[in-house]
Amino acid sequence: MARISQILKPSHYAPELQDLEVVCKAGEIAKDFLDCGSAESGEHMICKPTIVGRVTPWHQGQACHDPTMDERNLNFWIPLDDADVDKGCMQSVAGSTKLDVLPHHSIGNDPGIHGLEVDEPERFKEQVVASPLSAGDAVLHLPKTLRSAGPDTTLRLRRAYIVAMVAPSLVRERPAENCWMRQDRIARPERAAANQAEMTK
User: Fold this and answer.
1) CA 130 to CA 87: how far, in whole Å?
2) How much is the pLDDT for 50?
3) Any alpha helices (H) in the chain, and if so which ranges?
């Protein structure tokens, strides 16, 4: 199956991205929303292949982070092409920002895969809200937003630019349960060895 292509820190290759109006506005919005003097920015780009494009599983970004901390960031998902449900637009579960970290597992229960998906996502299907957008629009989500993006079933690429505005994390009163992260640490050496073997073929 075709993979989702991703570029981390694309402004390293195209510095003019940092001067985009949308990036400047994202910083201003984040400072107000997160009530902080400044927010560091992170970014990546995604290109989801056509027809056989893969599903981005339901997950919370918070599930990938330190269980003793609550992340404080605001993520701006900006499609570079018009994106509706057929093209794999962003979808989220209404009200999920009020939830704590939900149980997750490796995608497909495969410890060789670093990505996570939430347990029993079907229980949230009645609360799913799709966010079809035109190119250049944006949808925002928080670390605990339960979100997903379907496959691109059209003949046109679905590209997106994601800008994350990050403020200092807060210490949790009680650490989140994250057995999936412990399993990931165990599986990580095996993944590294498999990747090295693949590179030497």
Assistant:
1) 12
2) 84
3) 21-34, 179-199
